[in-house]
Structure to design on (228 residues):
């Protein structure tokens, strides 16, 4: 049975004429909104969020690359009868032979992330989101520009989340003591193991990951991203 057509533009809530920057901005918003770590691990809403997060990542993977986007647009035109996929502000190479003449089944294209199992799909989504997550934190001054290591601003936010996060900091900072972490010296704490800010984020307690994602969404989008 052939796969059902997927409208990646609709998933990212952008028009087919979106520029690459608009695609990236839409991905940031959609990924933060749908990220499964915004709800508890045992939440009944988690499977739905995980599926949506993977769709968002598939959409970004396909549309962020000009060559993949060109091939997808040709298939989308055949599937949806929509020939409006020509970008207005930038040139995306188009196939010389139109949209394929006689057509072909949607499943022949294999759009989306290059995975063969649910575990690989989850790993791919996390890896792709990680790069954009670090970019967003750099923009907010919470990650270093050169190597994306956490800054004092990141640690000050994490330190204020919960006792679980505080325990994580003490465990991961050789020489750090509870008093220093709990006091006003959080600004001097650094990740001595050289981990990127996303690697640190992934090891935080679940509740703190959810709160950090919500805080980041509020900072980046001015409260436009809801938890729904």
């Amino acid at each position: 049975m052939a796969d059902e057509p997927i409208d990646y533009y609709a998933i990212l809530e952008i028009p087919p004429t979106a520029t690459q920057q608009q695609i990236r901005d839409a991905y940031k918003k959609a990924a933060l909104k749908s990220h499964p770590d915004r709800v508890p691990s045992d939440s009944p809403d988690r499977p739905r969020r995980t599926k949506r997060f993977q769709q968002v990542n598939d959409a970004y993977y396909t549309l962020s690359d000009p060559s993949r986007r060109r091939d997808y647009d040709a298939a989308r035109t055949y599937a949806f009868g929509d020939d409006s996929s020509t970008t207005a502000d930038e040139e995306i190479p188009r196939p010389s032979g139109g949209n394929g003449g006689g057509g072909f089944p949607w499943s022949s294209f294999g759009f989306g992330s290059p995975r063969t199992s649910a575990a690989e799909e989850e790993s791919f989504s996390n890896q792709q989101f990680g790069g954009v997550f670090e970019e967003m934190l750099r923009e907010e001054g919470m990650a270093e520009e050169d190597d994306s290591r956490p800054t004092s601003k990141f640690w000050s936010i994490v330190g204020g989340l919960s006792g679980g996060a505080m325990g994580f900091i003490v465990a991961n900072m050789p020489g750090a003591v509870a008093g220093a972490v709990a006091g006003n010296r959080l600004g001097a704490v650094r990740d001595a193991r050289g981990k990127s800010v996303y690697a640190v984020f992934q090891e935080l307690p679940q509740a703190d990951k959810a709160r950090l994602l919500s805080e980041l969404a509020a900072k980046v989008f001015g409260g436009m991203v809801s938890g729904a």
